[in-house]
Design goal:
5-stranded antiparallel β-sheet; globular; alpha+beta; 23% strand
Length: 358
């Protein structure tokens, strides 16, 4: 229930934060796509915790492909991906089942199902995104080989520190050269200070991830209900801690005039293009052939080292400090997760477009 994305390129993630393993099942992946574990492992390695401000839970996240591959090629049959959990420390959560953690899904999950897994948040945990990243790596390879699509995200804001990033020039090398995945060298010291202040006070930070989708052909997207921007927004909003998604100028467009926001058309390199990109590469819910640009806003990590007010399962108001191994800020490690969800949507759009229009 609510664990599957896609119409043709379909992905179901499975597993809990402290279960024996976590992963994904992919269905609808075209046959004869070259694929091996190393294609997936690269993105999983990027998602792993690094540095003093990330969670100290250290998982190797080694992926195994259990089905759907023969002689290095996809068979067109379901692909099962498995990643073991090896550093859960479930004993750290003993007693937490009595409380509803502020900012988490503990209370709402229990109200819906009458039961919940309190160890690390169960399936509400950001650990669930491991399956998304693994599946997204398969989608990324399909898009690169069949359509030449490039998907790139970066940390654009951490706490109050906003980076100055040229989205048309940013590269994977610039992003990965930064400890915070922020391709603005001038902002690195300020970001470190912001993280240190939050960590030393037992607090946490939010931020934004920028995302650019390059070489997406004009015509992808299925209006009216399955507009490309609507599908991307749904996928990105399903990521834990995401609180907003905007395309192009986003909310700033509300204060612009039509004469400023409209992107004039022009002829460039034998194709219709726009002189500006205020729309973010999507018009009428369909890609226009330009760069698709988004921002994704993340709330602060809800588990903090400060004492907070809460309620027990018996209804008693108490104060409790929920100490654990948690990121001071999700944003740097969310970068490959954002890329993965965009890849899953675009892979589905590619197959839908090929099925109905080509």
């Amino acid at each position: 229930m609510g664990n599957t994305w896609g119409k043709i390129f379909r992905v179901t993630t499975w597993g809990e934060s402290h279960g024996p393993a976590i992963g994904a099942v992919l269905d609808g992946v075209p046959a004869q796509l070259p694929l091996c574990a190393d294609d997936i492992q690269h993105d999983l390695d990027r998602r792993c915790a690094v540095g003093k401000y990330a969670t100290q839970r250290h998982e190797t996240d080694r992926v195994s492909i259990l089905s759907g591959i023969y002689a290095g090629l996809t068979l067109g049959t379901p692909i099962m991906l498995l990643i073991p959990n090896s550093d859960a420390h479930s004993e750290d959560y003993h007693g937490w089942e009595k409380f509803y953690r502020p900012g988490h899904g503990d209370y709402t999950w229990e109200q819906k199902y009458g039961i919940r897994d309190p160890r690390g948040g169960g399936r509400c945990s950001a650990r669930e995104t491991v399956g998304r990243v693994a599946a997204g790596a398969v989608a990324r390879k399909l898009l690169r080989l069949k359509a030449g699509v490039e998907i790139l995200a970066w940390a654009e804001q951490i706490g109050r520190i906003k980076a100055d990033v040229n989205r048309s020039a940013v590269s994977i090398e610039l992003v990965e050269d930064s400890p915070w995945r922020c391709p603005d060298k001038a902002a690195e010291m300020a970001i470190r200070d912001e993280l240190e202040k939050a960590a030393s006070s037992g607090d946490s930070l939010g931020g934004t991830v920028g995302l650019v989708l390059r070489n997406v052909p004009a015509g992808w997207g299925e209006p009216i209900c399955d507009k490309l921007n609507a599908m991307l927004a749904q996928a990105l909003l399903s990521i834990p801690a995401v609180r907003g998604v905007e395309f192009g100028e986003g909310f700033a467009a509300a204060s612009m005039r039509g004469s400023d926001h409209n992107d004039a058309f022009c002829q460039r390199d034998g194709a219709v293009r726009t002189l500006t990109n205020h729309c973010g590469g999507i018009l009428g819910g369909i890609s226009n052939g330009g760069e698709i640009y988004l921002r994704v806003a993340f709330k602060p990590t809800p588990t903090i080292a400060q004492t907070q007010r809460t309620v027990t399962r018996e209804g008693e108001e108490v104060e409790f400090a929920f100490k654990g191994r948690h990121d001071v800020c999700f944003v740097p490690r969310a970068v490959p997760v954002v890329e993965a969800m965009a890849a899953l949507v675009l892979a589905d759009c590619y197959l839908l477009h090929r099925a109905c229009c080509c």
